[in-house]
Amino acid sequence: MSVYQREGSPFWWYSITLPDGRRLRGSTKKTTKRDAKIVAAEKEQNALAQPRRDQAWRLREVLGTYWEDHAKNLQNASVMFFHYELLSEFFGADLPIADLTSSLLLDYRAARRGGSIKATADMLDRDAAWRARAIDEAGMIVAVQPQTVNRDFAHLRAAMNWAANMHSKIMPRINWKGLKAKEAPFRVRFASGDEFADLLSIAHPSMRDIILCAVTTGLRRGSIFAIEWHQVDLRVSTITLPKMKGGKPHSVQIAPALRAALGRTKPADRKGLVFDATNHKRRWEQAVKEAGLVDFHFHDLRHTFASWARINGADLLDICEALAHSSVSVTQRYAHVKPQETTTAFDRVAAAFASHSASQSHKKRA
């Protein structure tokens, strides 16, 4: 390994020859020799850690390479990383990728759906709010719906395609279409006014502001728990989030009730996270049970926001923008919810006909 300067360049450059004969050259983007040596050493170590093109890859190489090359920079990187952890835990990170079969993936699907994958020590060390959502009391990853397993497979397929297309690795033939589990029809369960009032009155004090935020902004649970005080502007009643599920910034209006709730926090204490997610899962389930709500999940508060907006006259485009959906086609799930007061196409034509008839009558009398 050597570092050197090139004429006309302010940066130091590196030249590395690896034991397998590969040569690496490039700029360190550093202007001092000491810093350049550090960068060159890191380049060498990273290159040594990468499998050679002639090596048969294991699951760890397929997932790890895709992660380093591409996935870690994606907006949903944390979710994808968790899915890769589960795949590695179930199959073993050293599984030769050539040995991966559709049959093994069916076994994974059954385990994931049945909640029989054990959480790793690293997972158990994560924050309490995350553990409450992802891990049950027995230390097992909670059972999930078919659509979640389908996302697991989509992330694995993306990594395998990357290894094949970008690194010329031969991947096993997997029947992805056959592995895709049939997903349940999308459900829209929203709270009535009385149900919401009961839920809010019964909920633990730390949960009330969270519930109020969910219903009045339509934000997802993860987004709510990630809100920091510097993103809240009570003067203009807005919350601005740098990234949503689609990777774009999003701003929501703060309803008067939520503004009053947030305003109870003293200005000197408005630092860090806005909401306390301690024991969130237990407190939520207790509130739902005591309020007597049937088949009601936290995400249904988002459905409640959209449905109430629709009932009170908002069109689908308004709801699409408020929920930061990628397109109006996603928002079509709320199309069956009808506004209480609306002017239909039939009403508009009838009104136009009446206006036209009145105009003709007036002309005749004149």
What do you see in this structure?
- By secondary structure, the protein is mainly alpha-helical.
- It folds into 3 domains: 2-49; 59-179, no CATH class; 193-334, Intergrase catalytic core (hpI Integrase, Chain A, Orthogonal Bundle), CATH 1.10.443.10.
- The protein has helices at residues 33-49, 59-69, 77-91, 102-114, 121-124, 128-134, 146-167, 176-179, 193-202, 205-217, 221-226, 256-262, 280-291, 300-311, 316-323, 328-331, 345-365; strands spanning 2-5, 12-17, 23-27, 232-233, 238-241, 250-253.
- A 3-stranded antiparallel beta sheet has the order 1-2-3, covered by helices on one side. A 3-stranded antiparallel beta sheet has the order 4-5-6, with no helix packed on it.
- A hairpin with an 8-residue loop joins strand 5 (238-241) and strand 6 (250-253).
- Helix 14 packs antiparallel against helix 15 (316-323).
- The longest helix is centred in the middle third of the chain and has 22 residues, at 146-167.
- The chain starts with a strand and ends with a helix.
- The mean pLDDT is 85.
